[in-house]
Amino acid sequence: MSTLDQIIQGAVVIACQNCFKATLEPNSIQVQQTRKEFDGDKTVVVFPLTRASKSSPEATAEALGTYLVAHHELICAFQVVKGFLNLTIVPSYWTSQLLEAVQTAKFGFGPVGSLPKVMVEYSSPNTNKPLHLGHLRNNFLGYSVSRILEAAGHSVVKVQIINDRGIHICKSMVAWNRFGNGETPESTGTKGDKLVGKYYVRFDQEYKKEVQALVAQGMDEEAAKNEADLMKSARDYLAKWESNDAEIVALWKTMNGWVYDGFAFTYNEMGVDFDKLYYESETYLLGKDQVMRGLETGAFYKKEDGSVWADLTSEGLDEKLVLRKDGTSVYMTQDIGTAIKRYEDYPGLDRQIYTVGNEQEYHFKVLFKLLKLLGVKDSDRNRHLSYGMVELPEGKMKSREGTVVDADELLAEMAETAKEMATELGKVDDLSPNEKATLFKQVGYGAIKYFLLKVSPQKSMMFDPQASIDFIGNTGPFIQFNFVRAKSVLRKSEEAHGATMPSDLDASVWDPTELRIIQLGLHWPNVLMQAASDCDPSLIANHCYELTKAYSRWYQDHPVLQVEDASMRIARTTICMFFTQQIENAMELLGIQMPERM
Question: Which portions of the chain are predicted below pLDDT 70?
């Protein structure tokens, strides 16, 4: 809640005392932003106050509005709309708040480390294929949430768990051994993760041929899938890996090394990073000790066949297997161990946030309940940051069939599209080759990041590359273009009049469009804190769009440099300063770099 909301709450409490002889608590007064179609800046919800007034909502609002205008220095007008009291705040208030905000480099940000330590997990890929479009949404979402939480005042630890073991890895290894002829990233000039992914696809292609051949010989299809030689080999590789066979482990390390080099390049292009990496090969057994401890405490129970289970039926969930009868772990076992290890690695950790697709919602409900059963303090504070899938016009992506949209190729295509558009407009002719390359990435990468983040995480979405890079509408390039335009105004103003940080402004110069920009911008701290609470970067993105849209409209008929009146010129320059400062800070939280030229 903003300071202004609290001021209004206090003023309404006093008004109720004087108008209705009623004593109310400030928190009982509901204050909202006034809807755009009505006059006013703040709205008081009057319906709950009729108990105190013993009058209709309209009469109650009329009495309160009349009192507030007469007795409060910040309120200069009011409007009653049914059970709502719309209040207009004096322009001098917005002016003083604007001055304070523009003189604060990180306006709206919380003090660093003032809130508890939070861990954000994202990416968490398999090492049998390159990163794809789905990984882009995951990485951009997780990274942005970590930046937003940090800006709100949390200490943040960014992690991923790399799924570097299992049958899917062994499939790539078998195919490379069978069909690779010893090729390497160096010998082929192929990025390491793409080379390994190529053999994952090759495995599926050859495996299907083997299954079809066995079926043609009269074998049942399910039996054929189990008896196919390639699948037998993959299972054999997995068994040998788990028994630490030297040759298989060496191949596994080599091929995973290729993948890690490829991932590192892609993460750098994405603009994301991590504070710590966890590997499934190192953590998949950690949970077994925790399961044994759970047996001792009665949190878990053992069935006659030796398997270990947790009964979560009282929580509205099912019984959950946490250890197989042969003593081997399941994914849940691993996740239990990893979660507890992270608490040990980072003492004082308040909660863990898992950025994982919505198909895993049940898994995380179970995980958090199991941690609670094991006595992990505040484990119910953990959160699954669930997000919808990115869909394509052609349908779902399938890695094993090679139908995914490759992340590297998509990023490169976006930068190339930005290059074509900028070259066509002819606005980059005087830039050096390096400056051009940087600009094309800022615009192209910014376009896809913004497109994927402007949608609420819970929603599935259709990716449209062409729409994402449009310079009109709710897009990254639209915001970047207006930012660059405002920065140009500030540069020219500095050249003509020198660098000035306003110390005083004339409140009488503001018109409604200017007040709209100021009020939107001053709402930023609330937006940031809500985005942090909800783990929702779309709130940041859409705030940027609304502010940019208001600025763009204002810019059309509010000249800055040509204004002769010094006080008006300084006021309008201050609006440009406020706009660029806030947009740059906000877009940075989305992982989007803002260009100086376009």
Answer: 1, 392-403
